[in-house]
């Protein structure tokens, strides 16, 4: 009744709610509306107090306190009737938490005496609920959890409340555990973040470890953080174990973004720096070897890129453990197994530093022992300066008195031996990268030969090449040929005076066919080296037997033309079966036969080579020369014929055989067998390519001149001029004309000139026209000479070929008249108009003008300008009489129009010199003699 009066005094709406509750006391909504009405009444009062800002607001504060107490009373009444309502409990605990946070925190850590409790507010309820008593609030949470223990939100509020008290460590930890036990696993994610944050901030070391160990079972992604925690607490063994689990789990994703490589490096660093602590928890060597071994499948070879680092970490692990011999073994194993130069450099540098440190420690230990002996003998004197041998250094070196001693020389020898072996170890790395690298196997042989002591010499080099020939496959060989290794292996046996071993090596690869070459020439090289070795040893029979064996035809070899499927590697046959078709071996065998064999055996060898179709043009020529040397000339010619049966036109190899054949035939018979010689030439020219025709035609014509008829010689020259390529026709016709003129006179060359002009290109025809004109002029046939010039003028552009027109101009000056001169100018204009639409590049134009000298250019320009100005006839005689009256300016303009690059001043000086020469030597009045002095040919 007192509570109702307390509420109704400040809240007039309380009476209707009380009446409703009498009728329906278990209606949750009525209780909530009733409590909301109290909250509604509180809001205006709080706003009023905030506005007055402390001025005479005690009455309002009393009212607010009374309504707050009434609200708490209403929650307690409601929850007494409805203890299972989550909504009521949630709202009630939230209200209590807000009131708790609004009080002074120092209050909750003070212990109140009984007297202080009695001196408080007379109303005990106000004292409990308005000051935020910790016990009351905790009691409310505990009462709520009787029914609400499956609601994570209630637990979250309770745990947040307890976590704010640093002194309640045990209570808070147990409450967290209760929450995890009460809630299902699917809702633990609401509790564990709070638990983790609290325990890392306020928990003891052991508590942190145990809680985090449980947490990583729930969330494995937190293993990395758990490992960091263990590492910070110096629990290195457990930290390494957790990191190993992270690395082993392929599905592990680091919340911090760390890759598997980063985790692996951290694990290696941890184990290598703390080998004693991690040895019981992690098999570090097993993990490292599993990561390095691609065949194990444990890590799918994902750590091969850090192979050198892993070997160094493993060696460092044993070094810090004090097991130096085991560390050396790891370094050696790493150098023997890594397959990349980068990893090799990493391991070798670490290994060399390890040996240097051991050497320095040994030296320091020796200095320390000498200091100790000096101190014992001279105790009263001061301590001798030196390096102090600490316990840590002794433990590092694992020195045991009476066992290891101070073996400085051994440590120094180890360091030096390591540096000496570096090239050999690096060569091993390159061979592991590509075991079919022939060049590296040869380099390995050289390294062993250059090494001193028992580790080097011929025997290790032989063993290295034996491994090489067993490893390298013919089709995969790079940086050399497999035959180089076999030859080098036999040479090593020969150098070591083991001749039988060298022969046994050649028999293995040649006769026994132990190695499957991919190229026929490789096996041929081995046979050649075998023969050369026998020759060096002066075993002529052995050399001959090896050469015969190399070219022997297999018994099951069916010759078909020049190829057979069994000896053709492109068709799947074995390469070795076609060895008897090797040109290299046949050349060697034939040389041996000529040097060591008889005439019959050599001849038989050549015949067999030709029959097999293996011979080359040089072999044919050698065969013929061999027969000629022994005076078998007809058989030599028969050898030429057999060679021509293999190499015939249009093959390029037929030309040297024909040249030598004809040369030897002429030397032998000269003019005694003319018809046979003609038949040979006709056979040669029948299918000879046009580019080679001229050479044989000249030789044929020369033969006819020496031993035949002039008519036949000229017919050959004519055939030559017709058959040769376009670019050689001019020279061929000129030679034909010269020979005709020699044999029959100049008049017989007229039809040849006409045919040559019709057959040659325009540029060549113009040259022939000039020559034809000169011929007719020498014969006094001026009209015929002029006709030749007229015909050539149709193909000669004045802009490109001024020499032709200058020659015609000089011809008309010497032999023409005004009418013929006008006719020349008319033809020149018409030709110039015909070529006006033709475009030439600057190089062509410049090249034509540069062919003239400065004097020629000036004279030509002056003549052209004078002709243009004196075309009407009044000035023609003046130009013909010397041309000196033509203006120099006009000459400059003409030179510019033609594109000449001559300097204008140079042209003026040259023109002046010409004028002076004309005035001194020619007729002062400008007769024909003056014009002759500046003729283009004289210039």
UniProtKB/TrEMBL annotation:
It is found in: Nucleus. GO terms for cellular component: post-mRNA release spliceosomal complex; Prp19 complex; U2-type catalytic step 2 spliceosome. Residues 224-450 form the Pre-mRNA-splicing factor SYF1 central HAT repeats domain. It holds the Pfam family HAT_Syf1_CNRKL1_C. Residues 888-939 are annotated as: Disordered. Residues 14-220 form the Pre-mRNA-splicing factor Syf1-like N-terminal HAT-repeats domain. Transmembrane segments: none annotated. Keywords: mRNA processing, mRNA splicing, Nucleus, Repeat, Spliceosome. Residues 479-853 form the Pre-mRNA-splicing factor Syf1/CRNKL1-like C-terminal HAT-repeats domain. SUPFAM superfamilies: TPR-like. It comes from the Eukaryota. Residues 922-939 have a biased composition (Acidic residues). One of its GO terms (biological process) is generation of catalytic spliceosome for first transesterification step. SMART domains: HAT. Belongs to the crooked-neck family. This is Pre-mRNA-splicing factor SYF1. The lineage of its organism: Eukaryota, Sar, Stramenopiles, Ochrophyta, Bolidophyceae.
């Amino acid at each position: 009744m007192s509570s109702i009066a307390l509420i109704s005094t400040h809240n007039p709406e309380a009476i209707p709610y009380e009446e409703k509750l009498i009728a329906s006391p278990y209606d949750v909504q009525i209780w909530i509306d009733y409590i909301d009405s109290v909250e509604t009444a509180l809001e205006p009062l709080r706003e009023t107090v905030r506005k007055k800002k402390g001025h005479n607001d005690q009455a309002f504060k009393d009212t607010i306190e009374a309504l707050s107490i009434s609200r708490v009373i209403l929650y307690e009444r409601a929850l007494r009737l409805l203890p299972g309502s989550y909504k009521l409990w949630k709202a009630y605990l939230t209200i209590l938490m807000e009131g708790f946070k609004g009080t002074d925190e120092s209050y909750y850590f003070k212990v109140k005496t009984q007297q202080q409790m009695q001196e408080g507010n007379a109303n005990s309820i106000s004292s409990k609920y308005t000051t935020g008593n910790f016990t009351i609030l905790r009691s409310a949470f505990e009462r709520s959890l009787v029914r609400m223990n499956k609601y994570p939100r209630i637990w979250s509020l309770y745990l947040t409340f307890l976590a704010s008290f640093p002194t309640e460590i045990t209570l808070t930890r147990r409450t967290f555990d209760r929450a995890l036990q009460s809630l299902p696993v699917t809702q633990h994610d609401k509790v564990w973040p709070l638990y983790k944050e609290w325990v890392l901030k306020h928990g003891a070391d052991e508590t942190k470890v145990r809680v985090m160990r449980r947490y990583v079972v729930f969330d494995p992604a937190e293993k990395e953080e758990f490992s960091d925690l263990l590492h910070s607490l110096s629990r290195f063994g457990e930290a390494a174990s957790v990191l190993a689990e992270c690395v082993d789990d392929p599905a592990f994703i680091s919340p911090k973004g760390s890759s598997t490589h980063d985790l692996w490096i951290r694990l290696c660093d941890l184990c290598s720096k703390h080998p004693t602590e991690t040895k019981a928890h992690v098999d570090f060597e097993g993990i490292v070897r599993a990561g390095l071994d691609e065949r194990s499948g444990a890590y799918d070879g994902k750590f091969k890129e850090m192979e050198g680092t892993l070997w160094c970490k493993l060696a460092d692990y044993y070094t810090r453990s004090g097991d130096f011999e085991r560390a050396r073994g790891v370094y050696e194993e790493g150098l023997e197994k890594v397959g990349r130069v980068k990893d090799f450099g990493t391991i070798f540098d670490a290994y060399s530093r390890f040996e240097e440190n051991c050497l320095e420690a040994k030296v320091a230990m020796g200095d320390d022992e000498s200091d100790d002996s000096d101190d014992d003998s001279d105790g009263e004197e001061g301590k001798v300066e030196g390096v102090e041998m600490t316990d840590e250094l002794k433990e590092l070196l694992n020195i045991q008195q009476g066992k290891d001693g101070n073996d400085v020389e051994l440590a120094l020898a180890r360091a030096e031996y390591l540096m000496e072996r570096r090239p050999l170890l690096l060569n091993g790395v390159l061979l592991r990268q590509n075991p079919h690298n022939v060049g590296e196997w040869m380099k390995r042989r050289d390294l062993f030969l250059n090494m001193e002591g028992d580790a080097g010499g011929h025997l290790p080099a032989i063993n290295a090449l034996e491994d090489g020939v067993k490893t390298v496959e013919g089709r995969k060989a790079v940086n050399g040929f497999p035959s180089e290794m076999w030859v080098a292996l036999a040479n090593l046996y020969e150098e070591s005076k083991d001749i039988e071993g060298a022969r046994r090596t050649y028999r293995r690869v040649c006769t026994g066919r132990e190695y499957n070459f991919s190229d026929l020439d490789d096996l041929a090289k081995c046979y050649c080296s075998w023969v050369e070795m026998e020759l060096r040893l002066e075993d002529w029979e052995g050399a001959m037997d090896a050469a015969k064996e190399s070219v022997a035809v297999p018994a099951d070899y069916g010759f078909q033309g020049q190829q057979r499927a069994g000896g053709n590697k492109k068709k799947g046959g074995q390469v070795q079966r076609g060895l008897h078709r090797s040109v290299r071996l046949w050349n060697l065998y034939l040389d041996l036969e000529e040097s060591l064999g008889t005439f019959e055996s050599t001849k038989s060898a050549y015949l067999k080579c030709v029959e097999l179709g293996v011979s080359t043009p040089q072999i044919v020529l050698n065969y013929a020369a061999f027969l000629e040397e022994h005076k078998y000339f007809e058989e030599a010619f028969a050898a030429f014929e057999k060679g021509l049966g293999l190499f015939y036109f249009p093959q390029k190899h037929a030309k040297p055989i024909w040249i030598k054949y004809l040369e030897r035939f002429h030397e032998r018979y000269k003019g005694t067998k003319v018809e046979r010689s003609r038949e040979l030439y006709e056979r040669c020219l029948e299918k000879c390519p046009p580019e080679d025709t001229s050479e044989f035609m000249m030789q044929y014509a020369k033969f006819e001149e020496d031993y035949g008829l002039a008519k036949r010689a000229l017919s050959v020259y004519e055939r030559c001029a017709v058959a040769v390529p376009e670019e050689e026709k001019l020279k061929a016709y000129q030679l034909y004309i010269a020979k005709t003129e020699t044999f029959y006179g100049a008049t017989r060359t007229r039809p040849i000139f006409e045919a040559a002009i019709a057959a040659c290109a325009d540029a060549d025809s113009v040259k022939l026209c000039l020559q034809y004109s000169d011929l007719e002029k020498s014969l006094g046939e001026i009209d015929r000479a002029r006709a030749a010039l007229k015909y050539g003028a149709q193909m000669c552009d004045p802009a490109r070929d001024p020499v032709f027109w200058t020659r015609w101009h000089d011809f008309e000056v010497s032999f023409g008249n005004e009418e013929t001169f006008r006719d020349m100018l008319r033809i020149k204009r018409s030709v110039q108009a015909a070529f006006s639409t033709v475009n030439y590049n600057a190089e062509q134009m410049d090249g034509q003008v540069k062919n003239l000298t400065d004097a020629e250019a000036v004279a030509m320009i002056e003549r052209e300008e004078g002709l243009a100005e004196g075309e009407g006839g009044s000035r023609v005689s003046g130009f013909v009489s010397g041309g000196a009256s033509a203006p120099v300016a006009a000459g400059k303009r003409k030179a510019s129009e033609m594109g000449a690059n001559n300097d204008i001043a140079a042209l003026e000086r040259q023109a002046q010199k010409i004028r002076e020469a004309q005035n001194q030597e020619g007729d002062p009045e400008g007769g024909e003699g003056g014009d002759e002095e500046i003729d283009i040919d004289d210039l």
